[in-house]
Specification:
Mean pLDDT: 93
Helix content: 40-55%
Radius of gyration: 13 Å
Number of strands: 0
CATH architecture: Orthogonal Bundle
Number of domains: 1
Order of helices and strands: HHHH
Shape: globular
Strand content: under 5%
Largest sheet: none
Low-confidence stretches: none
Structural class: mainly alpha
CATH superfamily: ACP-like
Distance between the termini: 18 Å
Number of helices: 4
Length: 87
């Protein structure tokens, strides 16, 4: 999953040195994504992983790094598997 996010980020946003981007690096602090980029990222998540991202989930804890993105999608899939209708 991390590789899918890495491929999306490095192909859709300017990353000066893609090989040096760590999974835990802040995409916002590094200036890789901005508010418009977040919307692109949400579209990718919803299409690629078949989940819906609610407005209240648009927080850095879910979207600020490749690791955060992957953990967020895993939590959403786990919630859906347990029958949580919000996932």
């Amino acid at each position: 999953m991390e590789s899918a996010f890495r491929a999306f980020v490095t192909s859709n946003f300017f990353v000066a040195e893609p090989q040096s981007l760590a999974d835990t690096d802040s995409l916002l602090d590094a200036g890789i994504i901005d508010s418009t980029g977040v919307l692109e990222l949400i579209g990718f998540i919803e299409q690629k992983f078949g989940i819906t991202v609610a407005d209240e989930e648009l927080v850095p804890e879910n979207l600020d790094s490749i690791a955060c993105l992957a953990a967020f999608v895993r939590r959403k899939h786990a919630a859906r598997a347990q029958g949580d209708v919000k996932a």
